[in-house]
Design brief:
- There is one protein chain.
- The chain has 313 residues and is of the alpha/beta class.
- The protein has a single domain, classed as Spore Coat Polysaccharide Biosynthesis Protein SpsA, Chain A (Alpha-Beta Complex), CATH 3.90.550.
- Helix content is 38%, strand content 19%.
- The chain has 10 helices and 10 strands.
- Strands 1, 4, 5, 6, 7, 8, 9 and 10 form an 8-stranded mixed beta sheet that branches.
- The two termini are 14 Å apart.
Length: 313
Amino acid sequence: MKKRTVALLLARGAFNGSSRPHAGLKYKALMPVHGVPMVDYVMRALQESAAEKIFVVQGADEKLEQVVGCHSKNVFINCESNGSSYSHSLFSGLTKLADHYGPDGLQEIDIMLVPCDVPFVNGGNFNRLMAANDDKDTDVCVSMIRSELLKESYPERDFKGLYYSDLGENYCIQNFAFIRGRTLRAVFYGGKYTSEESGLHIPYNLLTDVAATADYLVSFRQTYYQIPLILWEWLWRLARKRYILQSLLMLGKLLRRRCTTQDYRRFVFLASGLTADYINTQEAELSFDIDRFEHLDALSDLKSRCSAADSTI
């Protein structure tokens, strides 16, 4: 790996089941899968990967360090906020991570955001994802995968995709992203580290603003409204910034299925001030998250999948 990468594992999400075996379980990360907490599969994969540290955001009463075992890479972060939202976890994790590395240390790393509910993942998936990010030089970089590849890998799941005219097919965004440490440094440490060389002029409230929007969108991620809601939210951001013409042009391209990856990169920059890029992955395991009870049925062959995947690391 050319870049130093640290993982920020968001393990504080609530489990919303109200019936069947795991009713009343507070945290999704603690859901038992073959007698092991689901988050443990993700943590083991990260420990086997080239990630140098694993910052685990947990609830104050979650006590993951007592159930997943010790490892030199692990750094546990207790999120003390009363809220249980994605934004609370993300902002708390990034704040503690920034404190840990300081402004000089942040300059040297990339932060990989990792969900806790992808038990099929293995160390090889993470290594290939990080290697693909090595050549990226934008503030944020998201992972996405061809919809057809996901259908071939998991025909029982219905994944939501978006059409890109320059790629000629539908792609699904995965719940993984990279944030440049230098971008985080500019956000938390202000003008002193917002240099002309980096080109960063990011307001402090950017993270809270984006994370709060993510809360709204995450709640709809398993519905057919996910993609329209994401696009509507960012179009509204453009309109509020008085980019009315750009909003209308983007809407027209969306309706005619003419949007390219470059259009979306420009779209994100105008709406947030962030430069963005994407990684075109082949890692289907990164897309199989556990959001509904019926998804648990697919975990019966988890051990055989993991054994086969270990040989690819």
